[in-house]
Amino acid sequence: MHTQQHYQDRIVVNPQILVGKPVVKGTRIPVELVLERLEEDTDTTLLFEDYPQLTDEDIKACLWYAKELVKGEEVYPTPYRPTA
Hints:
Layout: E1 11-12, E2 23-24, H1 31-40, H2 45-50, H3 56-71
Antiparallel strand pairs: 1-2
Helix pairs in contact: 1-3
């Protein structure tokens, strides 16, 4: 039996923690920082060395959070105008 991981339980938004930025639960590590570090290097070795309290599930939760933001984003296409 496979239980679905609820990543929303790992990311919290609290106005009293980092002015309400989303962070990994139980830490002051912002989702934004994790995503920036993954952008620099997808190998998580250095990230885990710098933030040993992070887990693989925390990183997956940060990626889930970013995906959900993009998925819920409203897109308003602009007409294509070729350049001269």
